[in-house]
What does this fold into?
Amino acid sequence: MLNHMVPDRAPGLDRVFHALAHPARRAILRQLCGRERNLSELASPLNMSFPAATKHVRVLERARLVRRRIVGRTHLCRLQPKPLAQANTWLEGYRKVWEGNFQRLDALLNELKSDPNPTPHASVRRQAKRQA
Amino acid sequence: MLNHMVPDRAPGLDRVFHALAHPARRAILRQLCGRERNLSELASPLNMSFPAATKHVRVLERARLVRRRIVGRTHLCRLQPKPLAQANTWLEGYRKVWEGNFQRLDALLNELKSDPNPTPHASVRRQAKRQA
DNA sequence: GCGATTGTCAACCACTTGGTTTCATGTTTC
DNA sequence: GAAACATGAAACCAAGTGGTTGACAATCGC
It folds into this structure.
């Protein structure tokens, strides 16, 4: 019924969402929009040690959000946006929910409050009686 | 230039993406589509202990993705989709990147390879020389 | 009132995360 | 060849995650 595009148990989704869950990594992704950058460029605006920054890059690589290409002594990183699109697709599965479909739930609950008979969740009926 | 709708350093985004980064929590969200459910309902298909499941629900509550309403002894949980929409908005900021804009980067790099003069990143010029 | 249901809390555990510092390695430049 | 540069790797640490178990409290049905 929902999210038929992206399955629920997807370790890829785990890694992508986890990668997006840190502001430093989101900042790295934003830096990577438009052009490649090497690790020093990525690390310098991050206000943390260089090894810490490269660990964040590695998290992004595990999530396949960043690909690295070694050129001499510099490691050029490049945004790999497909997993972002996949995460977006997963979120889109909930679009109808946040675009007002949940108001139908409101309507349903109100209906149940005014009509004590149709045997939905017992607790909902109790709630209705209590508030009456 | 990008993501002007949702700021980069947003602790709300941290919590939302972290909440989405676990399959159990995504399964809970999906269960919550359409109707409220109490904690037992949410926990039973999750193949883990009840306290573990309620911890996941609490993570979702911290991310404002779930709101809880106590009715007698049952705790009814309800999907709160606005943060999902916010995460979606953040991702949308990268849509142009994954919808082919990054091919302009390819074109730019190829242009740099064939023209050694226009002083971009030194490493890119070196790369061009090496491959020539 | 009793027993079953629903859920909380605290303690505990193994593992991961996010950060540091220090040292080593390959590369470019002069 | 030496110095500067770009990065990796390892050891370490504090805090957080994800899970368990066991004891406890409130509530509902009978």
